[in-house]
């Protein structure tokens, strides 16, 4: 599976019968899939299908979906008020030929009677509306595909950046591991030097107790566990990138674990070179985590 960024844009236009429609989709970072729709009046029934189609292809991101629909051909129909016509004819019969002209009523006369004929925009039947909505939803599917394509392209670029960060994290971990200052013998040598300075001219200190403390400090200063965990996290991160799919949350968790180990390394370090590498490690991890926030 490929990686996807959570940012993207897509616009697809089309027509169905006398209607023209356009979908516009915008996606940005989000903790989950937060979908917001903007639909024209009369198209609210599409909401359920919109959410279903979006959730089938996307798992994370703040997604805005907008639909615009215009009528390219206006049709007008005349609607006769049969009750009003019946009332007019009844009145004509009641008044009779002595009062009214017995000639048949003219169309222009009927049209001049208020409320008798109503001119309004023609409406589509259920079949035509169903066909229109089907075409519009097919357009939405194409829009989502275009959005996924853009998110996938950005995801590929993010993958390259993340792989570079992971390689640098591994390099710094190996650099710290190989630094001679972190070997137990070197740690003991420095502590012995400090101990000799401390005990110079002092007879009240228990040498055996001091040597026990040195052993304890040497054990605490060892970075073996932190380095091993960093290597394991590097392997896990690379596996997630190779698998692909919605792995953003898992990589974010690994970024937190990376940061935990780097903090411990900096706090345990008793050498300038290791501390410098630990600080650079923290910088690279922050950059890694910032980019991970963009992944689905």
Molecular structure report:
This protein is α+β, with helices and mostly antiparallel strands. Helices cover 60% and strands 16% of the residues. It has a 4-stranded mixed β-sheet, with helices on one face. Helix 1 links the parallel strand 3 (33-38) and strand 4. Helix 4 (126-178) runs antiparallel to helix 9 (272-292) and helix 8 runs antiparallel to helix 9 (272-292). The longest helix is centred in the middle third of the chain and has 53 residues, at 126-178. The two termini are 12 Å apart.
Keywords:
two-stranded antiparallel sheet, 16% strand, 4-stranded mixed β-sheet, single chain, 60% helix, alpha+beta, 296 residues
Question: How would you summarize this macromolecular structure in one to three sentences?
Answer:
By secondary structure, the protein is α+β, with helices and mostly antiparallel strands. Helix content is 60%, strand content 16%.
